[in-house]
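Dear H.,

Thanks for agreeing to be a second pair of eyes. The structure we're designing against is below in token form, covering all 530 positions.
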């Protein structure tokens, strides 16, 4: 998981402007935030929604456009061309030989509609087929030929459409000539009062009228573009999952402490015999999360923090482990408690023995904080210790709800600066709700794009009923195209720094901002070089 900075603006005085009108806090741990602000500022923030949308959906818009254009081009290129040719007839109805009156003009205009119907009737088309030796039936020819009057004139246009250019002109002229012949035969011999003549014979067309490959391709691209945009609008309308810090601000009204990008290669915390190694991007942004957590807990004086999520597989355990490392790196005395008694995993991550742990202390409690120390297993970081889950009991919820749990947490608070509790998801079991009243703050992990708003509100509602404040959200597994600006800002910063991609933190070569003693001994350590 690559990591990206949270949507907060830090000031030189060490204060932070929270979204949704939240109050400001102060803390000394602002070095990472200051580096980020000095380099990147807020110049692009007003446009981030637009840029995020473009980064996320541009591929689909381009795909829809190209696909629509490609389909249209393929159809147009494989369709047989159709040629069109037209002959124009003049209707000259005269009531007085050798004279033309206004009444004659009106009569001629009325006759154009009648004649345009007669010109494409079966008797005319049958004779056209016979004279032209055409390989069509009358029904087939009717689909190829049309006749229409030209409005406000004495003209009729006879049009033929075929796949052969010369044939189109031949058919249009044949229809015109056969119609004139039959019309004259209907009149009395020598009567020219209703004369019909060809004023513009049909010509062989130079190019087909369809398909128009270029035009059809452009129209296909436009249709593909509109279809893609419509699909995106539909998906966006019905998708109510939380994906970005703006979604958290608008829908949940909670501060975002950090954004963790979806990147499997950077999700690993490698624990060795004397060091903890992780990706530099991961380490740096969890330092920013650490700073934000300092701001969030300043007014609550919170030492005991519950970390939970809506459902399983949201990256909660990896997130709490990285946060614990970041806090220990800063010299905080940290106790990491695995309260997921059903699916414990912190012992595997830190390579610790899980034969005894929290479940043992809840069943057989100790009398003083000093008696807890044998249960707190040491890690390569001298200020970070882990209380593993222990053997899974038959009644996890009842044990976590017991008075022994509250007493145990109070003892741990005496031994550490921060106690982080990894609990099961809220909607999976009731364990998180039973622990919540005994802690001083809650950190909520949300997997970007996977949890619907209704389930989130249900989980947060259960936690709020405990009365413990929800300090903020860590948005996990964020796609690069969702919060690309923040991620690539950090990526660019470190790609130009020349620093290695992985850093090691241990008790011999300590990369800490403030030295501190291991948990429980009450002494301050110092930075050492070896």
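And this is the sequence the design step returned. I haven't edited it by hand at all.
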């Amino acid at each position: 998981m690559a990591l990206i900075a949270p949507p907060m603006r830090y000031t030189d005085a060490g204060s932070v402007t929270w979204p949704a009108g939240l109050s400001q806090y102060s803390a000394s741990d602002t070095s990472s935030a200051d580096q980020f602000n000095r380099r990147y500022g807020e110049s692009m923030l007003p446009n981030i929604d637009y840029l995020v949308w473009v980064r996320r959906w541009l591929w689909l818009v381009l795909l829809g456009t190209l696909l629509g254009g490609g389909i249209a081009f393929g159809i147009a290129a494989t369709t047989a061309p159709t040629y069109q040719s037209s002959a124009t007839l003049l209707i000259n109805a005269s009531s007085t030989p050798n004279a033309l009156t206004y009444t004659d003009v009106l009569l001629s205009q009325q006759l154009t509609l009648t004649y345009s119907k007669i010109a494409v009737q079966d008797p005319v088309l049958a004779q056209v087929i016979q004279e032209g030796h055409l390989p069509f039936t009358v029904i087939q020819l009717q689909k190829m030929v049309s006749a229409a009057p030209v409005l406000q004139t004495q003209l009729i246009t006879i049009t033929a459409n075929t796949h052969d250019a010369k044939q189109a002109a031949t058919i249009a002229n044949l229809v015109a000539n056969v119609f004139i012949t039959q019309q004259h035969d209907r009149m009395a011999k020598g009567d020219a009062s209703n004369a019909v003549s060809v004023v513009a014979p049909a010509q062989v067309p130079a190019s087909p009228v369809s398909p128009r490959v270029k035009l059809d391709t452009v129209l296909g691209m436009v249709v593909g573009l509109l279809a893609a945009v419509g699909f995106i609008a539909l998906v966006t309308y019905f998708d109510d999952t939380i994906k970005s810090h703006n979604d958290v601000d608008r829908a949940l009204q909670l501060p975002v402490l950090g954004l963790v990008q979806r990147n499997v290669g950077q999700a690993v915390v490698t624990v060795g015999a004397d060091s903890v190694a992780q990706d530099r991007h991961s380490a740096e942004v969890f330092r920013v999360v650490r700073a934000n957590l300092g701001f969030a807990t300043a007014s609550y004086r919170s030492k005991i923090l519950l970390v939970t999520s809506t459902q399983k597989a949201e990256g909660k355990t990896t997130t709490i482990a990285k946060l614990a490392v970041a806090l220990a790196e800063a010299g905080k005395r940290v106790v990491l408690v695995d309260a997921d008694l059903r699916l414990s995993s912190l012992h595997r991550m830190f390579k610790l023995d899980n034969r005894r742990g929290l479940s043992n202390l809840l069943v057989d409690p100790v009398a003083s904080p000093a008696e807890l120390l044998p249960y707190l297993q040491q890690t390569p970081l001298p200020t970070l210790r882990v209380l593993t889950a222990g053997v899974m009991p038959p009644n996890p919820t009842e044990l976590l709800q017991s008075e022994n749990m509250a007493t145990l947490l109070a003892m741990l608070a005496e031994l550490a600066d921060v106690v982080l509790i990894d609990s099961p998801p809220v909607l999976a079991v009731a364990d998180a709700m039973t622990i919540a009243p005994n802690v001083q703050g809650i950190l909520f992990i949300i997997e970007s794009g996977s949890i619907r708003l209704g389930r989130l509100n249900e989980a947060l509602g259960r936690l709020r009923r405990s009365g413990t404040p929800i300090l903020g959200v860590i948005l996990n597994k964020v796609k690069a195209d969702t919060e690309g600006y923040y991620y690539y800002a950090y990526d660019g910063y470190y790609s130009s720094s020349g620093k290695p991609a992985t850093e090691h933190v241990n008790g011999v070569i300590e990369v800490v901002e403030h030295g501190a003693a291991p948990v429980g001994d009450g002494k301050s350590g110092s930075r050492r070089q070896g």
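Two observations from my side: Residues 1-48, 494-501, 506-530 have pLDDT under 50 and may be disordered. The chain is about 40% helix and 20% strand.

Warmly,
E.
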